[in-house]
Amino acid sequence: MTAWTEDILGDPYERRTIDLGADPDGEGPITATLVRRRFDGTPRAALVYVHGFSDYFFQTELAEFYADRGYAFYSLDLRKCGRSLGDGHTPHFVSDLALYDQELNETLRIVRGEVPDVPVVLSAHSTGGLVLPLWLDRLNLEPGGTHGRGIAGLVLNSPWFDLQGAAWMRSVGTQAIRAFSKVRPKDRMRLPLAEAYGVSLYREHGGLWDYDLAWKPLAGFPVTYGWLTAVRRGHATLHRGLDIGVPSLVLRSHRSWFSFQHHEKTDTSDAVLDVRQIGRWAGCLGGDVTSLEVRNARHDVYLSNDEPRAQAYRLTGEWLERWIP
């Protein structure tokens, strides 16, 4: 464990490294990186954010939204992602999503130590929106459950709840991927180059956002057989039903629009996931689930154009006021 140092985002953002030891997937020493926005005074709550695939935390507007509401803000770059990506690592590769429990448990310990006696809200995007509920479901089986750990709610932004695309990919296709992953788990799948979503975001191509393309490539990192198999196992667990033990908010766009090249609809649709699947499986989180559409939102609703982005923040704020003490 290291001390807090200034983050690449500059003041008031700081980061510390979480040492995770040797990689269970055989890629040497691994770490995770916890980022915080320094908070003066006593916060009313804490928010911990987890990114998606081919992603990392750079959205300071999200942090400022929570800080303005009295929340201490933290964000976690998972192993082999963003700030935690090291030489010899296959970006984002894990053979089991449960391996993330190590850094998630340590993050929760750090946050509870720094801001004790306040509720902790968790938030995640896309693949992170699958990782967090699976972790919470396991955590809720332990003595005291999630509430005993101080967790009060979950905000999911276009979570990856099922495999998009043709129906056969969710049946025989998944079985074929699983079989291949047993032999060559880190081999890259041969998928078409799809830059539409990245182009819609990145400022140099007319988007609104700047970020490091080494950590968030326009077309995303290559998908490996072993990683996708881990995700599909996670989907199957979710579909059987979870009990995360806390109320949740699930936000998604009102439509999906898939295209390899940028199209005007890319800017007002989810260009990555099938929003119908998000709506279908949201109830599998268990408990009090608020599932809402944000019209004309992108895949990351908080990176949408001005009007849908404002709506996403408004809906989030209303939900927080209703559910978080």
UniProtKB/TrEMBL annotation:
Q: What does the record give under GO molecular function?
A: hydrolase activity
Q: Which Pfam families match?
A: Hydrolase_4
Q: Which Gene3D superfamilies match?
A: alpha/beta hydrolase (3.40.50.1820)
Q: Which InterPro entries match?
A: AB_hydrolase_fold, Hydrolase_4, MAG_DAG_Lipase
**Which positions fall inside the Serine aminopeptidase S33 domain?**
42-189
Q: Which PANTHER family match?
A: PHOSPHOLIPASE-RELATED (PTHR11614)
The UniProt keyword set, sorted, is: Hydrolase
Q: What is this protein called?
A: Lysophospholipase, alpha-beta hydrolase superfamily
